[in-house]
Amino acid sequence: MSATVLLRVEAAIEGITSIALIVVPGIVAWLLFGVELPAIAVVVARVAGVALLALSFGCWVAGRGSGTVPMFVAMLLYNVLVAVYFAFLGLQGEFAGQLLWPAVAIHVVMTVLLGVARSRSRPSSARPQT
To answer: Is residue 63 within 8 Å of residue 8, measured between CB atoms?
Structure first.
């Protein structure tokens, strides 16, 4: 899969998630973490949804060819951090909904795919000599 296509796929997945966070944050929280959200957490979840939507939009636009490196780095970092944090929550066991471990798996897979695509897209002169 090309780097551009991968960035667009990632943008679409996170875009759908962000819209769900904005529209139905309580359902997202229940599916991921198995908890109901208090009112202030709904506000925070919606703000997170807006931020994720902006990141997704940036990746979608970057998928057109210009500015892909910063968006690749941003999405790679996002996926690593979310995978680690969600796995931490799952291992603790307190906040583990039906979709927590599938979400961890998706973020790990996207991390690997983004990392591989990024390393393949770098010019050979930029790779370290062994």
So the answer is: yes
Write the DSSP string, 37-85: PPHHHHHHHHHHHHHHHHHHHHHHHHTTSTTHHHHHHHHHHHHHHHHHH
Domain residue limits, the chain: 3-120
Nearby residues of 4 by Cβ (< 8 Å), 6 or more positions away: 63, 64, 65, 68
DSSP character for 126?
A: G
Contact partners, residue 59, CB within 8 Å, separation at least 6? 7, 8, 10, 11, 14, 71, 74, 75
Which two tokens mark 12? 């679409």
pTM of the entire predicted model: 0.79
Tens of pLDDT, residue by residue over 33-62, are: 999 999 999 999 999 999 999 999 988 887
**Nearest partner of 53 among 88, 12, 113, judged by Cα:** 12
